[in-house]
Design brief:
- The chain is of the alpha+beta class and 171 residues long.
- The chain has one domain: Gcn5-related N-acetyltransferase (GNAT) (Aminopeptidase), CATH 3.40.630.30.
- It is 35% helix and 29% strand.
- The chain has helices at residues 13-26, 42-52, 56-59, 89-95, 111-125, 140-148; strands spanning 3-6, 65-72, 77-84, 98-102, 130-136, 152-159, 162-170.
- A hairpin with a 4-residue loop joins strand 2 (65-72) and strand 3.
- The longest helix is centred in the C-terminal third of the chain and has 15 residues, at 111-125.
């Protein structure tokens, strides 16, 4: 099967709705956070994603970022991946440069590994030479995805009953 990373556009609206409906029906927390619709219609989401990719993000307390969706040749969306162009203090400790999620019905098929490998050259284009990725210590699937793409564990940050693992990937 052939996959590509696609930018948000009106052309993917129905596929996005199908993708996000599945997440919402699952009752799971949608990751990456930027993929959530937050009660917005698709045109408003497009506007938000466009704004978030510019320096306007700083005005909202965020860093500029880009969201992409992984789709097959028919347009079906399998996952979303979010590149933060720079890091603030919070992202340096717990969020990292790249966050991703795979729709519940498509997990354990290597989608996240493939999606991450496809986005790393794009992250490099944003001037990121070393990408920080984080995951919960007990999310072994995410850790395996990061390690398979060259991630080196730097440390673990405890935060209450949660432990965040911090990995770096040289680009």
């Amino acid at each position: 099967m052939s996959f590509r990373l696609v930018k948000p556009s009106l052309e993917i609206e129905q596929e996005y709705i199908d993708y996000i409906d599945e997440w919402e029906r699952s009752g799971e927390k949608i990751v990456p956070y930027a993929a959530r619709r937050d009660g917005m219609d698709f045109k408003s989401l497009l506007s938000r994603w466009e704004s978030d990719s510019s320096n306007e993000a700083f005005d909202k307390g965020f860093v500029p970022s880009t969201i992409l969706f992984m789709a097959d040749e028919s347009g079906r969306i399998y996952g979303a991946i979010h590149i933060r162009h720079t890091l603030n203090e919070s992202l340096l400790m717990h969020g990292g440069h790249i966050g991703y999620g795979v729709r519940p019905s498509e997990r354990e098929k290597g989608i996240a590994k493939r999606m991450l490998s496809m986005v790393l050259p794009i992250a490099k284009e944003f001037g990121i030479d070393k990408a920080l990725l984080t995951c919960d210590k007990y999310n072994s699937a995410s850790a395996k995805t990061i390690i398979a793409n060259g991630g080196i564990l730097e440390n673990e940050i405890p935060d209450g009953d949660r432990v965040t693992q911090r990995y770096w990937i040289s680009l």
